Amino acid sequence: MTVDDIFLTIVIPCYNEERNIRLGALENVSSYLRRQKYPAEVIIVDDGSNDDSSALLKKISAENNNFIYLKKRHQGKAAAVTAGVLKARGRYILFSDLDQATPINQLEKLYPYFDKGYEVIIGSRNNERKGAPILRQAMAKGFMFLRNLILNLDIRDTQCGFKAFTRAAALDLFPKLKVFDLRRKASGSTVTAGFDIELLYLAKKKGFRIAEVPVEWHYQETRNVNPLKDSLETLADLLRIKLNSALGKYDA
User: Model pTM?
Assistant: First the structure.
């Protein structure tokens, strides 16, 4: 299929997701797409997994002719998503977490906004994180305060891992990321909260129309939280974005 033939590309990053793969998360995506009338592709980006994810993903890709397996060295979620987006051929591009905390059928809530002229459409938990531990909820509120204080980004939920773009918007934005580009290194599982922020900050700065749409969301725990370390890393990322903006690095 060519670019003109594919309606939707779904990019799914994977780092040591053996458990969720075995639980059938990707089968849910495949089943959903089989019920749709439009042609779609799924690009699964293996971000250097060191469990059995790679073998499982290769098997699933072999069984589904619209699934594409992309292997890369470990650099973190941001680089994995970017690598997948740059390979995408769809008219619209969605990136979604493999655990399907936001079920794939929530796409149906996003599509109408493309018809209204929006170019970036993001799922929003609408500040409700049902099932999430109190610590996570408190960190989310603190992050929101810092984000608005430093960057004045008027978006309620920047971190939901369910974001869709027109092809033109995606191919304009992702190559221009500075803090979270394909050169960044990572070790172990990373949160990279600043990735979504930089992406949306750049989209707003470049004048893309952004819609924030409430979606269904279920809490999934995938890593241990270190409140101090994670908060400091997030603050550092916000300051890097602010500095890059002040230096005109996003103006090109």
Answer: 0.90
**DSSP string across 118-158:** -SEEEEE-TT--TT--HHHHHHHHHHHHHHHHHH----S-S
Tell me the sheet residues that pair with 70.
45
Ordered by start, the domain boundaries in the chain are: 8-246
The segments of the chain whose pLDDT lies below 50 read none
| CATH architecture assignment, domain 8-246 | Alpha-Beta Complex (3.90)
Phi-psi region of 126 (alpha: psi -120 to 50; beta: other; left: phi over 0): left
102-134 pLDDT tens trace = 999 999 999 999 999 999 999 998 655 555 556
Dist. CA 74–CA 184, nearest whole Å: 10
Two structure tokens written together for 172: 């304009």
CA atoms within 13 A on the CB side of 27: 7
- Per residue in 50-79, pLDDT (tens digit) is 999 999 999 999 999 999 999 999 999 999
Task: Please compute, for residue 127, the number of CA atoms within 13 A of its CA located in the half-sphere on the CB side.
Answer: 8
